[in-house]
Design goal:
The chain is α+β, with helices and mostly antiparallel strands and about 60 residues long. Helix content is about 15%, strand content about 40%. The chain has one domain (about 1-60).
């Protein structure tokens, strides 16, 4: 998260207030993509399917 300048607060916000949730491509282990706006930017989270608590595989700001 630090490498991409993403705070834990931003991740939690998107997990709770996402606007789009969809399956990720079938490459690798099953995942879902959560997209949500946080402070004027869109954050995408790749979350391992059926993980509890959510396991974030990777993340990225949509505009980078």
């Amino acid at each position: 998260m630090a490498e991409r300048n993403v705070s834990e607060e931003a991740v939690q916000w998107v997990l709770e207030h996402y606007s789009i949730r969809r399956p990720a491509s079938k490459k690798g282990s099953p995942a879902e993509i959560f997209e949500g706006d946080y402070q004027g930017r869109t954050l995408k989270l790749w979350v391992k399917r059926d993980s509890n608590p959510p396991f974030i595989k990777t993340l990225a700001w949509k505009d980078e």
